[in-house]
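Instructor's aside before we start: the two examples that follow are unrelated to each other. I chose them only because their records fit on one page, so don't look for a connection. First example below.
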Amino acid sequence: MRTISVPLILINLQDDGFHLLVEIVAFGQKLLAVVDTGASRSVFDRSFIESHVKEIEHTEEAHATTLFTTSSTLQATIPKLKVGGLILKDYETVALDLEAVNQAYEGLGHPPIGAIIGGDLLLQFHATINYRKMKLFLYKE
């Protein structure tokens, strides 16, 4: 089993806790993503997906439960997704509007996010978060 170590960025939400961010690459573009252990699956920002994907499936059914809410989602395929040294081909994803999240981040002086890394990837790759080392460890067979 190969261990993939991904650096984490800790951001302070002032009196409302902390979020962990990781740098990812989708469509050849670097993005920051929130690591959300409570999210059922990973999601991408709707406007980011719409600007890169021609074939998008619209659905009213919420396919992702995250710390953010949504009323409708889009489904799309990302040809190549990189999370540190982990490379995923033809990654099926859900997109939702992260504009409110990004406005809140901007108000706190933080950079925008383009995605949320959720339980689907964290479970599949047996993720471990090491706060002392500020690393996300993923294990690929």
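Example two begins here.
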Amino acid sequence: MRGKQVAFGLVTAFLVVAGCAGPQPAPARPGPLAGQTIEVLAVWSDEEQAAFERVLDVFEQRTGATVTYVSGGDEVPTVLATRLAGGSPPDVAGVAQPALVRTLARAGSLVPLDPSTESVIDAQFAPVWKELGTVDGELYGFVFKAANKSTVWYDAGQLGPGFVPPRTWDEFVETLRKLSDTGRTPLSVGGADGWTLTDWFENVYLQTAGGAMYDRLARHEISWTDPSVRTALQTLGRVFRPEYLPGGISSALQTEFTESVVDVFGADPKASIVFEADFVAGAIAESTPARVGADARVFPFPRIGPTSSVVSGGDTLVALTDEPGTKALMQFLASSEAASIWAAQGGFVSPNRQVALDEYPDDSTRQIAEELVGADNLRFDMSDLMPSALGATRGDGFWRAMQDYLADPAQVDRILAELEAEATAAYEEGDS
């Protein structure tokens, strides 16, 4: 055990010294973790996987450790459950749902972060981010790759040089109305993916009801039939109008997220505005000829309340083993330097407030990152805070309720009553 403590102390000192000078070349001799292997399981694939592996390369060069990355895609929770059941968990995992982090921690599957890593998080992250990784007073993880889900994207070419992005909800509604009055269908909505609709609701609810009510609804301390929910839906209904959507409501319910982006930035656009998180940039790059920051521009989700509010999502890194290599990697990944390596490559936003804005490759991403880190009122994606049966199931729960509301707002009483019944059952099962 003493040998392991010494090795971890050596790599900690090495990372601190080397971190001051930026990425270093591979050491001339094996590092303090030579011969150790570390496995990381997370959602990232394709370009994201390649970017994350560049981060891991720097860690390997400095320490002599070998890090293997496994992409679980959307099946990370299932893969992780299988690995845990088989007694062979990865050393580190990226988990998108704080609710799952809580479940794993309370089941004894996670290893609390060591004091050195916690000190990095205390110094470089706002307290709200630490709270997200804390379960029953113990810190188990941190958000490495975040999403700013309070962004609205528009095609600058379609709207012209005189377009002024709306700052308030009333201005946003008026913008949509004016575009519609000129014969254009302004707003693309990917309603086939229910999570895009829950993101709409969460932004509106945070601003109309406030942070405290948002927290209570996420924990099911108030009912889904509460008047505050109806108020948010009615506010949202001001933009979910058939004349504002290409093909009307029925078409929006059949449009998936990527298609909604293509409908704005593709070669044959059907609308000029689309709402979703900063990962819209990835869909633009992969599926359209538009250039982020030039053709594709962004403005903050229009204000309804008095302060700036941001709904965030992201992937929380947690440790499942207490090996020296695991501890050293977690400490490195918590650092602003590790985040900056990916930030420079694009397609990434960090909640680490010590990542310099000029590390990001374009003005739009810099703006998105600045709004995320500087938000007065930040909350995590509500659906990811809920039991997965309620908040993350295609065609059911929260996702289905929002699709039903888009389809027929007049049925709001039935929709909310059914959602409340599902929420009651989900929380009684203890899946939170």
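The two ends are 36 Å apart (CA to CA).
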